């Protein structure tokens, strides 16, 4: 019985058989060249069975010997790159749903999961409202402070009280003037336009004396 040690040619032949073979695919009229090792990473996938030339797939070849696959070549690119390096990279001009459609067609379970996660994160980011803080400065007298602060409602918060440093004659009583700084978080709608101030906020402003 000949062994690999006795006949080095057997060892070389065996190594050649184990080497990954180059394979050409004709996806929707566009050619892709890769290896059987790349396409065979997921045994339950369509591409793995294609490499085994499974007769059940009934896959035809064109005149160049490339396997014919009637799918969109634009969305096949991210699928092939995922098989090559295990990372999901989608061009900004491509829709994630299109890549998901191809991942499901080729039955690549890990890619399906990653694309679904990407779509969920994208939708969550686009539906999450954006907000910004709006500040108001209310000029008021000393005896108006209590009323001004107590009148703050509907999201307005007291931030800072600043003494003007001068007195104001109010009737027969001298009163100091203050600047009351308040803020409110305004949530933007999906169009990016800040929501209008509510009636309570407007009423608070009117009761807060003079604005600067």
From TrEMBL:
Source taxon at top rank? Eukaryota
- One GO cellular component term: cytoplasm
| Pfam families, per the entry | BTB_2
GO terms under biological process: proteasome-mediated ubiquitin-dependent protein catabolic process; protein homooligomerization
According to the UniProt entry, its GO molecular function terms are: cullin family protein binding
* Domain BTB positions: 21-123
What name goes with this protein?
A: BTB domain-containing protein
Task: Give the taxonomic lineage as stored in the record.
Answer: Eukaryota, Metazoa, Chordata, Tunicata, Ascidiacea
């Amino acid at each position: 019985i000949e062994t690999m040690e006795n006949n080095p040619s057997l060892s070389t032949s065996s190594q050649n058989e184990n080497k990954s073979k180059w394979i050409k695919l004709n996806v929707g009229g566009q050619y892709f060249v890769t290896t059987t090792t790349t396409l065979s990473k997921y045994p339950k996938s369509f591409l793995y069975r294609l490499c085994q030339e499974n007769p059940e797939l009934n896959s035809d070849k064109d005149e160049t010997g490339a396997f014919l696959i009637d799918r969109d070549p634009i969305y096949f690119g991210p699928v092939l790159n995922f098989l090559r390096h295990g990372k999901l990279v989608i061009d900004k001009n491509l829709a994630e749903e299109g890549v998901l459609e191809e991942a499901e067609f080729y039955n690549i379970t890990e890619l399906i999961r990653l694309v679904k996660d990407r779509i969920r994160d994208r939708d969550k980011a686009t539906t999450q409202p954006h907000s910004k803080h709006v500040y108001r400065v209310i000029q008021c007298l000393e005896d108006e402070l209590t009323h001004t602060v107590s009148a703050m409602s509907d999201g307005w918060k007291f931030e800072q009280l600043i003494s003007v440093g001068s007195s104001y004659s109010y009737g027969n009583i001298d009163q100091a003037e203050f600047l009351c700084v308040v803020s409110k978080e305004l949530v933007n709608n999906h169009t990016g336009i800040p929501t209008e101030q509510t009636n309570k906020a407007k009423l608070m402003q009117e009761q807060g004396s003079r604005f600067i």
